[in-house]
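User: Sequence in, structure out. Go.
Assistant: Echoing your sequence, followed by the structure tokens.
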Amino acid sequence: MNWDNKFASDVKAVPFSGIRKFFDLASSMKDVLSLGVGEPDYAAPDKVIHACIESLKRKETSYTSNWGLLELREEIAKLFAKRYGLTYDPKDEIMVTVGVSEAIGLVMTTFLNPGDEVLIPDPAYLAYPACVSIAHGVPVLVPTYAKDEFRLTVEELEKKVTPKTKAILIGYPNNPTGTIMDRASLEKVAAFAKAHDLIVIADEIYCDLTYEGQHTCFASLPDMQERTIVLNGFSKSYAMTGLRIGYVCAPREALEEIYKVHQYEILCASTTSQYGAIEALRNCDDDVKAMYEEYAARREMIYQGLVDMGLTVFKPKGAFYIFPDISCTGMDEEEFCDRLLTEEKVGVVPGTCFGPQGKNHIRISYAASRENIAEALKRMARFVKKYKKA
């Protein structure tokens, strides 16, 4: 059997994850300090684990509603009402998904016809353009720049919009840069979306990890709830990555069609994980606060360490990533990461895994212990000193 001419061309053209390439390489080596994968170094809170166990003891192992447990959707609705003043009907404006990853794919499948374009800030989470392409759409990368701390601007959006543009896909706080967008900046993006009649897909998975100012939910901007699809979940804030639980909040008429795709492709998210998510929303604010405070301390530590070794870097304002420029070493981002891993056994990710604007940058995750960060910084400083140009 010759499989080469059997694949969908859009799927065949999608590259494998550059993050996983370096993660797999680092995993095959001994004594590597990996600062590459964007995953909390915590387990889920004890209360969440207990709730999951108790649900299994009750033998709650059957399907839930395709929408997800109503009890969970009601808790999500309460969260949005309390935090952002937004009203979502838990019956048909909130749907539980298998992480935000499923949610992104669902949205793209639901809205994109072949050739439809989606504007995506560059750099951004590498799954964004891949999911657009897999749904037979066209990802259009909108450059952002280090001099602006990689904030998205309307000026760059205007250069990329065409009659084929259907949506903007944004994620702030940003992976990989740690950039946030304040309310005033997001209002400009909102005005652009209204002017061009675009859907806004807002991935807000890092919303609880905003260190300066407050997170602005895109749907809370004036007149934007009606055209915004909010994606969020429990992986980052609650360290529940392996439990694979996320959700979509959207206007009823939009979510009904997204639900249709979810119904046929997935059926429902894990019942056990949904009970854990209910407990997370009800009783785990203290756990979220404790993790936030630790990430904030690590942010200061890693930022100062990179500055001290002479790298150009801005202090991230959200998520748990930092994005230094390594061009002073005379190496590009791929060579830097390869050699740092080989020579000093520190695993980081090339910036170009997240788009062309990541050239000469690397992404470092500080979702690691202070002890490991300190040792990684020591090894990196030695490496940078060795190769840094005068």
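User: And one key feature?
Assistant: The radius of gyration is 21 Å.
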